[in-house]
């Protein structure tokens, strides 16, 4: 690994500290290097606050070293005025010697403009360093802007004999270690979705309990509004979108969004894109999960398997015939991860 790659790798590590907290902004890390020594580093903590480059610049004690320094950033510096001024202009103004960029920003407001501002100022600029890893870091952001839909993770737990529950009643399948993993997953992603049947059967609150982090936005697909409003999914713990065919209204933290049943998945994707949801965990049940699988609408699939548990009768696990990219073992459970190749 050459030195440029080493410093971009550090940018990625820094950026990951804010996973789940920067929506709708991407995860970005930045490092400032003077004569082979890191003199400043920073990352974007949350939307509305300083971008990574500014945090890195602010952390440099001796600002006179900046014109002799290289700034590394995992994503192309922004060129537009949002809640904060453009980072590309700040880099130009301070006159860095060199700028090294991980991935270019495909988002239409940036897309090469940041790099151009810096190059036009006569600053040496390199991009595409550890590009694959930098795109992977922002798979949610890139999927959202390029495919006009959220990054989709399908998730379920099944018994050794392929059931989601016993006799159609809620059944604990995964162990406590896996539950911690699942709660961390919720904290890392933007939203979580269930259908009517799951909400009625399990009365879940879909919040983060056994991990650190924010509660995801809850999405309930409930065409005929069968789920009573005193159910956990309606409590005040997280913003909630209710996709239904009856009404369109917003009250407090709950937004009812009316949609047609025909061509449902397409209109759901459009709705979630409009609501700026960048990633969503589909927690099913079986019917909802199978719909996504049949349409080929997924970026990642997480299957928790408890091989020793035999349930014999109940809701069948979804039909999904792919080989996992990765298998993780959690005592007597294991997790199969399937990741779709390349998001771009």
* Rg, Cα atoms, Å: 22 Å
Reading side by side through the largest sheet, how are the strands ordered? 10-11-9-8-7-12-6-13-15-14
Question: Major β-sheet, in short?
Answer: 10 strands, mixed
Residue ranges: pLDDT <50 for 5 or more in a row? none
User: Can you write the helix and strand succession as a string?
Assistant: HEEHEHEHEHHEHEHEEEEHEHEEE
Question: How would you describe the shape?
Answer: elongated
Q: Distance between the terminal alpha carbons, to the nearest Å? A: 24 Å
Beta strand %: 15-25%
Helix count from the secondary structure assignment: 10
- Structural class from helices and strands? alpha/beta
Name the average pLDDT.
94
Helix content: 25-40%
How many E-type strands? Answer: 15
Describe the structure.
The chain has 344 residues and is α/β, with parallel strands linked by helices. Helices cover 27% and strands 24% of the residues. It is built from ten helices and 15 strands. The strands form two sheets. Strands 10-11-9-8-7-12-6-13-15-14 form a ten-stranded mixed sheet, with helices on both faces. Strands 2-1-3-4-5 form a five-stranded mixed sheet, sandwiched between helices. Strand 1 and strand 2 form a beta hairpin. Helix 3 packs parallel to helix 4. The longest helix is centred in the N-terminal third of the chain and has 14 residues. It is elongated and about 70 Å long. The mean pLDDT is 94.
């Amino acid at each position: 690994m050459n030195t440029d790659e080493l410093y971009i790798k550090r940018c990625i590590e820094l950026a990951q500290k804010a996973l789940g907290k920067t929506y709708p902004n991407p995860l970005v890390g930045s490092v400032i290097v003077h004569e082979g020594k890191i003199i400043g580093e920073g990352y974007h903590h949350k939307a509305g606050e300083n971008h990574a480059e500014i945090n890195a610049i602010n952390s440099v004690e001796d600002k006179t070293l900046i014109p002799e320094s290289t700034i590394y950033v995992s994503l192309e510096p922004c060129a537009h005025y949002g809640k904060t001024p453009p980072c590309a202009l700040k880099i130009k103004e301070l006159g860095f010697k060199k700028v090294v960029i991980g991935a270019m920003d495909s988002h239409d407001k940036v897309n090469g403009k940041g790099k151009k501002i810096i190059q036009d100022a006569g600053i040496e600029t390199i991009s595409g360093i550890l590009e694959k890893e930098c795109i992977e870091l922002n798979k949610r952001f890139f999927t959202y802007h390029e495919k006009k839909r959220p990054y989709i993770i399908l998730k379920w737990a099944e018994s050794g004999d392929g059931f989601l529950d016993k006799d159609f009643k809620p059944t604990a399948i995964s162990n406590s270690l896996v539950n911690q993993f699942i709660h961390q997953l919720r904290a890392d992603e933007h939203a979580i979705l269930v259908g009517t049947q799951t909400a009625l059967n399990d009365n879940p609150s879909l919040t983060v309990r056994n991990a650190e982090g924010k509660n995801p936005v809850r999405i309930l697909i409930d065409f005929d509004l069968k789920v009573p409003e005193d159910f956990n999914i309606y409590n005040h713990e997280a913003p909630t979108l209710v996709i239904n065919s009856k009404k369109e209204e917003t009250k407090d933290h709950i937004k009812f969004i009316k949609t047609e049943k025909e061509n449902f998945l397409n209109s759901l994707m459009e709705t979630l894109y409009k609501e700026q949801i960048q990633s969503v965990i589909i927690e099913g049940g079986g019917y909802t999960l199978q719909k996504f699988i049949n349409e080929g609408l997924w970026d990642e699939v997480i299957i928790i398997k408890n091989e020793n548990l035999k349930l014999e009768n109940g809701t069948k696990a979804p039909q999904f015939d792919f080989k996992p990219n990765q298998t993780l073992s959690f005592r007597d459970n294991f997790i199969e991860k399937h990741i779709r190749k390349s998001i771009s």
